[in-house]
Design goal:
By secondary structure, the protein is α+β, with helices and mostly antiparallel strands. The protein contains 8 helices and 8 strands. The longest helix has 23 residues. The two termini are about 25 Å apart.
């Protein structure tokens, strides 16, 4: 968590991210998770059994780096498989404040394609040379998988989990959410284009790298991310105002 972000702000942002994921239809019942880092190697996660639209700042569960529960207002506990993925990436990447994982139809479908994500459109081009892949190892209960997850992610902030779904990281909750939405839209757009049966037009590697670097520059601007995230949060009834 950054020095400028209070624990309450992190709680508010994380609860908003859960509800926005639900609002955009990217949730999967009580499955998948979004985790956020707190000081002292503590992390926030959703309680087991709550749908994403039910998550609020005051019912988030606090766990340690091993997934042991430190505070659970609901008494519901957490899904152990959920934190296996998240703990690996938080541990390997100290700068990562948020890890977001989804099982959408488009994301899972894309994860089943041998070619993975193609550089077909502007959304997808931001991931050119910046998207990791991790082979499926079954439901994430094996703690040994954590090292392989971290190694496969490497320096990237987005990953396709083969036969499983999508994952994004961010220096903030807003950054992880915005990156996931673009990755999800990239998958949807690719599947729609492939469904036409017509030849697919791809930009040159030079153009793809150019656009990816343009996105890199935008992502480096915390002001731009903050504006976009505040705009997303205003979609919620209790979101921030323009003031």
């Amino acid at each position: 968590m950054s020095d400028t972000a209070s624990e309450q702000q992190v709680r508010d942002d994380l609860a908003a991210a859960y509800r926005l994921i639900a609002l955009d239809g990217m949730d999967d019942g009580i499955s998948t998770h979004i985790s956020a880092r707190l000081p002292g190697e503590r992390f926030l996660l959703n309680a087991l059994g709550l749908r994403f639209e039910e998550v609020r700042a005051d019912n988030l569960v606090t766990v340690d780096a091993c997934g042991e529960i430190l505070d659970d207002p609901t008494g519901l506990g957490i899904n152990p498989a959920g934190f296996t993925i998240h703990s690996a990436l938080h541990d390997a990447r100290p700068e990562v404040e948020c890890v977001l994982h989804t099982h959408t139809v488009a994301g899972v479908a894309l994860s089943c394609l041998e070619e993975g994500l193609l550089p077909l459109n502007q959304w997808a081009l931001q991931f050119h040379g910046r998207l990791a892949y991790h082979d499926y190892e079954g439901i994430s209960l094996d703690l040994d998988e954590r090292d392989r997850l971290a190694a496969d992610l490497g320096p990237h902030s987005a990953m396709v989990l083969r036969q499983h779904g999508l994952l994004t990281c961010g220096r903030s909750i807003g950054e992880a959410f915005l990156r996931m939405r673009d990755l999800e839209r990239s998958c949807q757009a690719q599947l729609a284009a492939q469904a036409t049966g017509h030849p697919l037009r791809q930009p040159s590697p030079t153009m793809a790298e150019h656009v990816a670097r343009q996105y890199d520059a935008w992502n480096a601007s915390e002001h731009g991310i903050d504006l976009a995230w505040r705009a997303e949060r205003r979609r919620l009834p209790d979101g921030p105002t323009l003031a």
